[in-house]
UniProtKB/TrEMBL annotation:
One of its GO terms (cellular component) is vesicle membrane. The lineage of its organism: Eukaryota, Fungi, Dikarya, Ascomycota, Pezizomycotina. Residues 243-256 have a biased composition (Polar residues). It holds the Pfam family TUG-UBL1. PANTHER family: TETHER CONTAINING UBX DOMAIN FOR GLUT4. It comes from the Eukaryota. This is TUG ubiquitin-like domain-containing protein. Residues 207-265, 447-484 are annotated as: Disordered. CDD domains: Ubl_ASPSCR1_like.
Amino acid sequence: MASHVTVIGTDLRRATVKVTPGTYMTDVLQEACKKLGLPADKYLLKHKQKNVDLSIVWRQAGLSPGAKLELVQKSKTPSAVSVALQLPPPESSVTPNGRLVEKLPSDLSVWQVLRQFESGNASQGKNLNLTARGVANIDTGAKSGSGQLYYETPVLNIMGRELASFSDFQKTLSQLGYNSGSVLMRLSFRLTEKTLYEAMSEISQHFPDVETPRKEPTTASSASTAMPAPTLESEDTAKEPSESTAPAASTEQSHSVGGDTMDVDYPGPSDPLQPVGVFQAPTGTTPAAALAAVSETDFSPTVAHAQLHQIRLQQASQNKRLLSDKELEDRANAEKARLASVSSVAIKVRFPDNTSAQWSFGPEATGALLYKAVRSVMAHDSQPFKLVLPGTRTIITNSDNADYRLVHNYKLTRNVLVNFIWDSTVSVDVRKQPFLKGSIAQQAKAVQVPDIPQEADDSKESGRAVQPSKPESNDRTERVAKKLPKWFKLPGKK
């Protein structure tokens, strides 16, 4: 049964919108903004001072026929939405429940959401192909393996609403009514009559900003190799010349560059797993730091400490605005530049018997390389263990995947100490035996504790040393007592 609602704009103009039980509230917003000449992506709907859920249909909104809705401006900063993508088989085997979950800003388009899930961040490092799937169609009578590749488009079902066209994928989460909370998207695929090359060209026209890195196709073969590997049901495209020759060329180039660098600068060890230093366990039970002679004045706060504390208190009491999108982007770019500037990182691993070994790794080293290096010095190298970052519960993953690089992903940019922890299945006898191999243990050296130079007391130079409080209090009392009249003095005083 058809009905209508009245939408009142911020300038008190009104727009009447017809609705049916199946009309989505986001469509009501768009229709009202269209009649009022306003951009729908900058407004929300309110009813009796409560936000209207734009993702539901009219019959679920609990509004009466002829209800008056207010048009209000929404925040310019996009909010976070928890997006869950339910994968179809066989992609559902990526996760135990076949569902990927990630928090994304509400101004992302549906296409950008799919591309975000393809990157592997939410799929435990496994890259998925959701937007560039091609299927060989051999129904035209051609021999098996020689059919034309046709595009298989993704289809999303969001609370009964189907999105399957490129125009639907251009809508943002906010335009679909999701500005906060969570949303479940059920994914499936549908074979189209478009060839893969035609679909890629159309995608580059609908999403030029998103698909710039993938937009280079001049031939059908280059289009299929520029995109993520299409899902094929034939073997004719599995051996593309561009895919087989490009890695070989890049490998040859890297060897030539690496050879020049090695000849000129770094001779380097023959075995990259060889530690640069092995250290013995401490001989005493008391930590060396506790045996160092420390002056009591080192623990006395100075005037500079008090001033710094006051400055921090003042800064903490001031209201601070949230960073803008530009500032967040600049901060992220600065962090990427900082990590890119790291050429090597020294990692020292402390073993259960308090011996330790140190390695130096490049910026592309992964967690698997660190685990291999540790096993190379273990006496029982077949026993399971894990490496934990200090001060946290973060366990370095034993994987060669690029998502587990020590520098770029674990943010190890300085000298760092990593703790070795045996797995619970390791027997007590193995734990009691020496940890290092005999050949490695012979190379171990005692840890040299550097002498801390004694700094001279700079209180005389600064001229701002705090005088003892008691004499100062007595002098002040005497000066005040001289200025007081006789009648104000306390009894017993002369």
